[in-house]
Amino acid sequence: MTDRxxxxxxxxxxxxxxxxxxxxxxxxxxxxxxTKADLKLGIAGYGFLxxxxxxxxxxxxxxxxxxxxxxxKHIPLNTTKExxxxxxxxxxxxxxxxxxxxxxxxTEQDIDRxxxxxxxxxxxxxxxxxxxxxxxxxxQKVVHCNIxxxxxNGGPEDKWYPTPKAVFDNIKNYDNRIGICFIIGHAQRAxxxxxxxxxxxxxxxxxxxxxxxEAAKADAHEVELGRGIIDIPALVNSLYKQKYxxxxxxxx
Length: 252
Fold this sequence. Notes:
Elements: H1 2-31, E1 40-44, H2 53-63, E2 67-70, H3 81-92, E3 96-105, H4 108-121, E4 125-130, H5 135-145, E5 148-152, H6 164-171, E6 178-183, H7 184-189, H8 194-201, E7 205-210, E8 212-213, E9 222-223, H9 232-241, E10 247-250
Parallel strand pairs: 1-2, 1-10, 2-3, 3-4, 4-5, 5-6, 6-7, 7-10
Antiparallel strand pairs: 8-9
Protein backbone atom coordinates (compact mmCIF):
# COMPACT_ATOMS: atom_id res chain seq x y z
CA MET A 1 0.00 0.00 0.00
CA THR A 2 2.86 2.37 0.84
CA ASP A 3 4.49 1.79 -2.55
CA ARG A 4 1.18 2.32 -4.32
CA UNK A 5 0.47 5.52 -2.40
CA UNK A 6 3.96 6.80 -3.18
CA UNK A 7 3.52 5.97 -6.86
CA UNK A 8 0.17 7.76 -7.05
CA UNK A 9 1.44 10.80 -5.16
CA UNK A 10 4.58 10.93 -7.28
CA UNK A 11 2.71 10.56 -10.56
CA UNK A 12 0.09 13.18 -9.68
CA UNK A 13 2.70 15.73 -8.63
CA UNK A 14 4.85 15.19 -11.71
CA UNK A 15 1.81 15.45 -13.99
CA UNK A 16 0.71 18.63 -12.19
CA UNK A 17 4.16 20.14 -12.71
CA UNK A 18 4.07 19.29 -16.41
CA UNK A 19 0.59 20.77 -16.83
CA UNK A 20 1.54 23.93 -14.99
CA UNK A 21 4.59 24.36 -17.20
CA UNK A 22 2.32 23.84 -20.20
CA UNK A 23 0.02 26.57 -18.92
CA UNK A 24 3.03 28.87 -18.54
CA UNK A 25 4.01 28.19 -22.15
CA UNK A 26 0.47 28.72 -23.44
CA UNK A 27 0.14 32.00 -21.58
CA UNK A 28 3.61 33.09 -22.63
CA UNK A 29 2.62 33.06 -26.30
CA UNK A 30 0.54 36.18 -25.80
CA UNK A 31 1.63 37.59 -22.45
CA UNK A 32 5.39 37.05 -22.12
CA UNK A 33 6.04 40.59 -23.32
CA UNK A 34 4.31 41.84 -20.17
CA THR A 35 7.30 40.89 -18.02
CA LYS A 36 10.92 39.96 -18.45
CA ALA A 37 10.81 37.49 -15.55
CA ASP A 38 9.70 33.88 -15.88
CA LEU A 39 7.29 32.56 -13.29
CA LYS A 40 9.04 30.42 -10.71
CA LEU A 41 7.80 26.97 -9.74
CA GLY A 42 7.96 25.41 -6.30
CA ILE A 43 6.55 22.54 -4.28
CA ALA A 44 4.27 23.06 -1.26
CA GLY A 45 5.53 20.52 1.28
CA TYR A 46 2.06 20.09 2.76
CA GLY A 47 1.33 17.79 -0.16
CA PHE A 48 3.91 15.35 1.24
CA LEU A 49 2.42 15.30 4.73
CA UNK A 50 2.07 11.50 4.79
CA UNK A 51 5.41 10.82 3.12
CA UNK A 52 9.00 10.68 4.38
CA UNK A 53 11.76 13.19 3.79
CA UNK A 54 13.32 10.85 1.25
CA UNK A 55 10.04 10.48 -0.62
CA UNK A 56 9.58 14.28 -0.63
CA UNK A 57 13.07 14.72 -2.07
CA UNK A 58 12.56 11.99 -4.67
CA UNK A 59 9.23 13.35 -5.93
CA UNK A 60 10.49 16.93 -6.00
CA UNK A 61 13.48 15.84 -8.08
CA UNK A 62 11.18 13.95 -10.45
CA UNK A 63 9.27 17.15 -11.17
CA UNK A 64 12.47 19.00 -12.05
CA UNK A 65 11.51 21.70 -9.53
CA UNK A 66 14.29 22.95 -7.24
CA UNK A 67 12.42 24.77 -4.46
CA UNK A 68 10.14 23.63 -1.64
CA UNK A 69 8.14 25.19 1.16
CA UNK A 70 8.90 22.87 4.06
CA UNK A 71 6.34 21.53 6.53
CA UNK A 72 7.21 20.82 10.15
CA LYS A 73 6.37 17.17 9.48
CA HIS A 74 9.74 16.98 7.72
CA ILE A 75 11.72 19.48 9.80
CA PRO A 76 10.08 19.58 13.25
CA LEU A 77 9.73 22.95 14.97
CA ASN A 78 11.71 21.88 18.02
CA THR A 79 14.75 20.28 16.36
CA THR A 80 18.21 21.76 15.91
CA LYS A 81 20.91 19.28 14.87
CA GLU A 82 18.36 17.02 13.15
CA UNK A 83 16.96 20.00 11.24
CA UNK A 84 20.41 20.92 9.93
CA UNK A 85 20.97 17.35 8.78
CA UNK A 86 17.66 17.33 6.88
CA UNK A 87 18.42 20.69 5.29
CA UNK A 88 21.72 19.29 4.07
CA UNK A 89 19.88 16.36 2.48
CA UNK A 90 17.74 18.79 0.49
CA UNK A 91 20.79 20.87 -0.45
CA UNK A 92 22.70 17.82 -1.66
CA UNK A 93 19.79 17.16 -3.99
CA UNK A 94 19.87 20.78 -5.19
CA UNK A 95 16.52 21.64 -3.63
CA UNK A 96 16.20 25.05 -1.99
CA UNK A 97 13.95 25.37 1.08
CA UNK A 98 12.46 28.78 0.36
CA UNK A 99 9.76 29.00 3.06
CA UNK A 100 8.33 27.21 6.10
CA UNK A 101 4.74 26.42 6.93
CA UNK A 102 1.83 26.39 7.20
CA UNK A 103 2.18 27.27 10.92
CA UNK A 104 -0.81 28.11 13.11
CA UNK A 105 -0.14 30.89 15.62
CA UNK A 106 -2.58 31.08 18.52
CA THR A 107 -0.28 32.69 21.11
CA GLU A 108 2.74 34.98 21.26
CA GLN A 109 4.79 31.91 22.19
CA ASP A 110 3.68 30.24 18.93
CA ILE A 111 4.86 33.31 17.03
CA ASP A 112 8.21 33.43 18.82
CA ARG A 113 8.78 29.75 18.13
CA UNK A 114 7.89 30.11 14.43
CA UNK A 115 10.32 32.98 13.92
CA UNK A 116 13.07 31.14 15.79
CA UNK A 117 12.37 28.14 13.57
CA UNK A 118 12.61 30.22 10.40
CA UNK A 119 15.91 31.73 11.53
CA UNK A 120 17.31 28.30 12.50
CA UNK A 121 16.55 26.72 9.13
CA UNK A 122 17.49 29.83 7.16
CA UNK A 123 14.27 30.78 5.38
CA UNK A 124 13.03 34.29 4.70
CA UNK A 125 9.31 33.59 4.72
CA UNK A 126 6.82 31.85 7.01
CA UNK A 127 3.46 30.69 5.69
CA UNK A 128 1.13 31.11 8.62
CA UNK A 129 -2.29 31.54 10.12
CA UNK A 130 -1.91 33.90 13.10
CA UNK A 131 -4.78 34.78 15.39
CA UNK A 132 -6.12 38.14 14.19
CA UNK A 133 -5.69 39.62 17.67
CA UNK A 134 -1.94 38.93 17.43
CA UNK A 135 -1.23 40.67 14.13
CA UNK A 136 0.41 43.65 15.83
CA UNK A 137 2.81 41.31 17.58
CA UNK A 138 3.42 39.50 14.30
CA UNK A 139 4.34 42.83 12.72
CA GLN A 140 6.83 43.55 15.50
CA LYS A 141 8.53 40.22 14.87
CA VAL A 142 8.54 40.77 11.09
CA VAL A 143 10.26 44.12 11.52
CA HIS A 144 12.74 42.84 14.11
CA CYS A 145 13.69 39.63 12.24
CA ASN A 146 13.16 40.85 8.66
CA ILE A 147 11.29 37.63 7.88
CA UNK A 148 8.14 37.79 5.77
CA UNK A 149 4.79 36.37 6.85
CA UNK A 150 2.47 35.07 4.12
CA UNK A 151 -0.97 34.43 5.61
CA UNK A 152 -2.86 31.69 3.82
CA ASN A 153 -6.56 31.73 2.97
CA GLY A 154 -7.81 28.47 4.44
CA GLY A 155 -11.19 28.08 2.76
CA PRO A 156 -14.75 28.13 4.12
CA GLU A 157 -13.86 26.28 7.32
CA ASP A 158 -11.18 28.83 8.30
CA LYS A 159 -12.68 31.11 10.97
CA TRP A 160 -9.96 33.76 10.57
CA TYR A 161 -9.02 33.83 6.90
CA PRO A 162 -11.50 31.95 4.67
CA THR A 163 -10.77 34.04 1.55
CA PRO A 164 -7.99 36.22 0.11
CA LYS A 165 -10.19 39.23 0.89
CA ALA A 166 -10.32 38.26 4.55
CA VAL A 167 -6.52 38.14 4.64
CA PHE A 168 -6.19 41.44 2.78
CA ASP A 169 -8.72 43.26 4.94
CA ASN A 170 -6.87 42.25 8.09
CA ILE A 171 -3.31 43.03 6.91
CA LYS A 172 -3.69 46.02 4.60
CA ASN A 173 -2.50 48.51 7.22
CA TYR A 174 0.48 46.48 8.41
CA ASP A 175 4.10 46.27 7.25
CA ASN A 176 4.51 45.30 3.58
CA ARG A 177 6.42 42.19 4.65
CA ILE A 178 3.08 40.76 5.79
CA GLY A 179 1.21 39.43 2.78
CA ILE A 180 -0.95 36.67 1.33
CA CYS A 181 -0.14 33.05 0.61
CA PHE A 182 -2.82 32.60 -2.03
CA ILE A 183 -4.29 29.07 -2.05
CA ILE A 184 -6.28 29.00 -5.27
CA GLY A 185 -8.14 25.77 -4.47
CA HIS A 186 -9.36 27.09 -1.10
CA ALA A 187 -10.50 30.32 -2.76
CA GLN A 188 -12.53 28.32 -5.29
CA ARG A 189 -14.07 26.17 -2.54
CA ALA A 190 -15.14 29.38 -0.81
CA UNK A 191 -17.00 30.41 -3.97
CA UNK A 192 -14.37 32.95 -5.02
CA UNK A 193 -13.04 33.12 -8.58
CA UNK A 194 -9.26 32.69 -8.11
CA UNK A 195 -8.31 34.76 -11.13
CA UNK A 196 -10.48 37.70 -10.10
CA UNK A 197 -9.24 37.43 -6.51
CA UNK A 198 -5.61 37.40 -7.60
CA UNK A 199 -6.10 40.45 -9.80
CA UNK A 200 -7.75 42.30 -6.92
CA UNK A 201 -5.16 41.53 -4.24
CA UNK A 202 -2.01 40.96 -6.34
CA UNK A 203 -0.08 43.70 -4.55
CA UNK A 204 -0.14 41.63 -1.34
CA UNK A 205 0.38 38.13 -2.78
CA UNK A 206 3.79 36.73 -1.74
CA UNK A 207 3.31 33.04 -2.45
CA UNK A 208 0.81 30.96 -4.44
CA UNK A 209 -0.15 27.34 -3.87
CA UNK A 210 -1.53 25.69 -6.98
CA UNK A 211 -4.14 22.97 -6.66
CA UNK A 212 -7.29 22.31 -8.65
CA UNK A 213 -10.68 21.35 -7.25
CA GLU A 214 -13.67 19.54 -8.72
CA ALA A 215 -16.30 22.16 -7.82
CA ALA A 216 -16.92 25.57 -6.24
CA LYS A 217 -18.25 24.19 -2.97
CA ALA A 218 -16.89 23.75 0.52
CA ASP A 219 -16.56 19.96 0.40
CA ALA A 220 -15.06 19.78 -3.11
CA HIS A 221 -12.21 17.31 -3.56
CA GLU A 222 -8.78 18.26 -4.87
CA VAL A 223 -7.84 16.92 -8.29
CA GLU A 224 -4.85 17.09 -10.62
CA LEU A 225 -4.38 20.32 -12.56
CA GLY A 226 -6.55 20.33 -15.65
CA ARG A 227 -9.13 17.94 -14.20
CA GLY A 228 -10.88 20.54 -12.07
CA ILE A 229 -12.74 23.77 -12.70
CA ILE A 230 -9.97 26.35 -12.19
CA ASP A 231 -8.81 28.03 -15.40
CA ILE A 232 -5.05 27.61 -14.87
CA PRO A 233 -3.97 29.26 -18.18
CA ALA A 234 -6.12 32.31 -17.30
CA LEU A 235 -4.48 32.48 -13.88
CA VAL A 236 -1.02 32.29 -15.46
CA ASN A 237 -1.98 35.10 -17.84
CA SER A 238 -2.89 37.23 -14.81
CA LEU A 239 0.38 36.40 -13.08
CA TYR A 240 2.31 37.59 -16.12
CA LYS A 241 0.22 40.74 -16.45
CA GLN A 242 0.67 41.63 -12.78
CA LYS A 243 4.40 40.78 -12.98
CA TYR A 244 4.22 38.33 -10.10
CA UNK A 245 7.68 37.61 -8.69
CA UNK A 246 6.94 34.97 -6.03
CA UNK A 247 6.66 31.21 -6.47
CA UNK A 248 3.83 29.09 -7.79
CA UNK A 249 4.07 26.00 -5.62
CA UNK A 250 2.23 22.82 -6.49
CA UNK A 251 0.20 21.40 -3.61
CA UNK A 252 -1.63 18.17 -4.29
